[in-house]
């Protein structure tokens, strides 16, 4: 499998409709898991100081669930960079994502340190995009997402 053809979404891009609106061509979205990381809502929104977006942080005892997209070609990921503010707000890195087919090297966006702040909450509309990925999440992980405190 080619590394440049996979993208792991753990935030709002778990919503397939959002991905389509953003112009990405993909097929076969599947459940993906990143071990040794946890989901955090600590990425400051550039346009609203009290709003946060999803990020992942190192945590050896945890894991992040999300949607692994097989991109139609290696250039599709470049369409995501403007939406993620890469490379300024998020960096795009390669991580191994666990799937039923084994580990797949995939693109993953991680918030840059200068954009991280504790004590932030996502807006409810943003959290709804994460919840839209339900079919690719375990029930316990989905339920945990429903309990995330939002700005309303």
Automatic annotation (TrEMBL):
Taxonomic superkingdom: Bacteria
The entry's keywords: Acyltransferase, Lyase, Transferase
EC id: 2.3.2.-
Entry-linked Pfam families: GGACT
Enzyme class: transferase
One GO MF term attached to the UniProt entry: acyltransferase activity
Name used for this protein in its record: Gamma-glutamylcyclotransferase family protein
InterPro entries: AIG2-like_dom, G-Glutamylcylcotransferase, GGCT-like, GGCT-like_sf
Residue span(s) of domain Gamma-glutamylcyclotransferase AIG2-like: 7-115
């Amino acid at each position: 499998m080619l590394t440049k053809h996979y993208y792991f979404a753990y935030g709002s891009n778990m919503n397939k409709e959002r991905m389509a609106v953003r112009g990405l061509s993909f097929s076969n979205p599947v459940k993906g898991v990143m071990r040794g990381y946890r989901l955090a809502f600590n990425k400051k929104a550039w346009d609203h100081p009290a709003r946060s977006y999803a990020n992942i942080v190192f945590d050896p005892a945890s894991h992040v669930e999300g949607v692994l997209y097989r991109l139609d070609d290696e250039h599709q990921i470049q369409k995501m960079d403007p939406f993620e503010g890469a490379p300024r707000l998020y960096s795009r890195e390669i991580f191994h994502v666990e799937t039923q087919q084994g580990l797949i090297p995939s693109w993953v966006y991680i918030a840059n340190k200068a954009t991280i702040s504790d004590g932030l909450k996502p807006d409810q509309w943003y959290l709804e995009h994460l919840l839209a990925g339900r079919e690719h999440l375990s029930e316990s992980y989905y339920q945990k997402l429903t309990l995330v405190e939002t700005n309303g």
